[in-house]
Description:
The protein is an alpha+beta fold. The two termini are about 20 Å apart. Strand 1 and strand 2 form a beta hairpin. Strands 1, 2, 3, 6, 7 and 10 form a six-stranded antiparallel beta sheet that branches. It has helices at about 105-130, 150-170; strands at about 10, 15-20, 25-30, 35, 40, 45-50, 60-65, 70-80, 85-90, 100. Helix 1 runs antiparallel to helix 2.
Amino acid sequence: MKQIAKKQSRAFGKNVYLLGEDSDGTKYWLQEPSFDCGWYWAFGYVETYTNNRYPHLAKDIASHQHIDSLLGQQYTYDYEKQCNVVGDYVHNLYNSPLFAKTTFSSEEGWKLSELFQQFYLLRKMADFAHKELPGCHITNSPVDHGDMKDWYNKINNEMIPRITAKILEILS
């Protein structure tokens, strides 16, 4: 089992939740969710800090990535071949090659993976439904989807808050 004690801290005025450590002892922290700019959810930011042991004392962020980069197809850069090499597909966050230790069990990793996938799917659906004329906003949608404000409100006010609360419950 690659578990470590569960931890919660603060960094730059926000709550952060320890996900785990890599083989060098670098700690990876998940930033709390926030509803930004009055219209979308920001969540899934994984960071390391200049004072990684005590994030509340950090002066800067050392690295920043998104949790979805830890799930799915894994790539590593092969310097000898000068290209990306395809690795294993990671379904369970617990099995991410980044973590030598985690703050969650394998069973909780499955739940976290499901919840993060739901979050990203619903976030995209809310983004789609946000404008008066729903679409992907590459150009004007050639299909009239009608008024989707009810979808947008249900996703942002009910569904995503339940998902993020469950994620934070698992990591607390």
